[in-house]
Amino acid sequence: MTHQTIVVLDFGSQFTQLIARRLRELSIYSEILPFDTPPAEIARRRPVGIILSGGPKSVSEDGAPRCERAVLESGVPVLGICYGMQLMTDLMGGRVEPAPHREFGLATIRIEPGAPLFASVPDELRVWASHGDFVAAVPPGFVVTATSANAPVAAMASPAQRLFALLFHPEVAHTDRGLDILRNFAYDICGCT
């Protein structure tokens, strides 16, 4: 039997296993791989999508975990979550800076109309945030798809490049409609059946 696979690259988040579990709840096969898995090894698995997990580091720290930019240019949809969003920003030419206020806990985001990740969810959501850095400037070709009081870029997307990112954790129970967001990524964006 051939599985439609979503690969989850692990950047050290305490929630990486939970991302895979949520995908399983959606009847999606997933594999967790180390963050530095070579792009050719990821491609060998023929994933329909890739998720970059969160992680405890800052992208500006020496020795912070990184994947190759080729992972983002593989042609399959990629979803960056928290640290994964910051890494995507850094790799694609945007700017990440230390946040004036570290965000940890519940936050309210406001969603821009027409954002594919947020189809069928209300335009305001309570989400679980946990980050010390924020996206100060989105990469070329990206648009802001959600904002919060402490994060001018709570979510961003470049649909043409099939790249999507969230500064919060959709996989945790504290995030309203988080499973719907992951379902939108898996089914609507990646084409899982």
Question: Can you characterise this structure?
Answer:
This protein is α/β, with parallel strands linked by helices and 193 residues long. The chain has helices at residues 16-25, 39-44, 69-72, 83-91, 178-189, and strands at 5-10, 29-34, 49-52, 78-81, 95-111, 124-137, 143-148, 155-158, 163-166. It has a nine-stranded mixed beta sheet with strand order 2-1-3-4-9-8-7-5-6, sandwiched between helices. A hairpin with a 4-residue loop joins strand 8 (155-158) and strand 9 (163-166). The radius of gyration is 15 Å and the shape is globular. The two termini are 14 Å apart. The model has no long low-confidence stretch (mean pLDDT 94).
